[in-house]
Design goal:
Length: 184
């Protein structure tokens, strides 16, 4: 009977601990606002010429040329960054809407997309989960707590898919388990 009561108390404690951690460890809701787009035209209009075209001089070649990085090849010609050593390769091209090049640095190299890809990823996550979604981390046990010694006889399971779950959260869970009477 006492073992059953201890087990129930442990489960209740774990639920309370999980709720406390989920409530305090998660970020507050971000300030999101609807984006309104106002236009004088009623909508998109088809054009005879393509709206998207290839920019710069980057063309793939049959055999890529490997250039070992030197300090001159990792420095950009972009004036704002002219004196900053950039590890690896960098490039930039800024064009006007009519295609005139304003400034360029290493326009002949091909690069992977930069951090602006994160904008699309963030949009996809917001559309899939919504702005109010919060990841939750749950803590379970299949064991029983010996109240006299503070020993948990069994396993502790931590579940959740929180991409920012870190050691701080694990320490908080351990602290709350300790407060609930779990010593070992």
């Amino acid at each position: 009977m006492k073992n059953s009561l201890s087990s129930k108390l442990l489960w209740i404690s774990l639920v309370v601990v999980t709720a406390c951690i989920a409530g305090s460890g998660q970020a507050s809701a971000p300030l999101l606002q609807d984006i309104k787009v106002y236009s004088a035209t009623p909508g998109p209009v088809a054009t005879a010429t393509p709206l998207v075209r290839k920019t710069g001089a980057a063309t793939p070649s049959a055999a890529p040329v490997v250039v070992p990085p030197t300090i001159s090849s990792v420095r950009t010609m972009f004036p704002a960054l002219a004196e900053v050593a950039i590890p690896g390769y960098s490039g930039i091209i800024v064009e006007t809407l009519d295609g005139r090049t304003v400034i360029e640095s290493n326009p002949g190299f091909m690069f992977n997309p930069a951090s602006n890809v994160k904008t699309g990823t963030s949009y996809s996550v917001l559309k899939a989960f919504g702005p109010e979604f919060r990841f939750a981390t749950n803590v379970y046990t299949d064991g029983a707590l010996d109240q006299a010694t503070g020993n948990l006889i069994g396993n502790i399971y931590v579940s959740g898919r929180d991409p920012i779950f870190g050691y701080e959260h694990a320490v908080a869970i351990a602290h709350e388990l300790n407060r609930a009477g779990v010593k070992t």
